[in-house]
Fold this sequence. Notes:
Blueprint: E1 2-10, H1 19-38, E2 42-47, E3 54-57, E4 64-67, E5 76-85, H2 88-95, E6 104-110
Antiparallel strand pairs: 1-5, 1-6, 2-5, 3-4
Amino acid sequence: xxxxxxxxxxxxxxxxxxxxxxxxxxxxxxxxxxxxxxxxxxxxxxxxxxxxxxxxxxxxxxxxxxxxxxxxxxxxxxxxxxxxxxxxxxxxxxxxxxxxxxxxxxxxxxxxxxxxxxx
Length: 119
């Protein structure tokens, strides 16, 4: 089985929700993630901290490090999943009921092992 990266993209803005509604959304993410783990396809997952980050550019003779990333009015990556699946089609099927689709999009990329072999 190959490994696929699911990048959770959103605009960084969310509809106003009551605390109860936010808790319900969080529970949907927990349930979806638990389902992936139960099926044995979940490799890793994490939400990214809001705002904080660094961009490293160049490298010779010294890399340039800036605060970021900052995206104005565009999509931002809010988190990721790494799953195992037989194909892109299977990964799309796994992603089709992800609660994130109510707030943004999911970019799917197959991971390639650093030795050049498929993951």
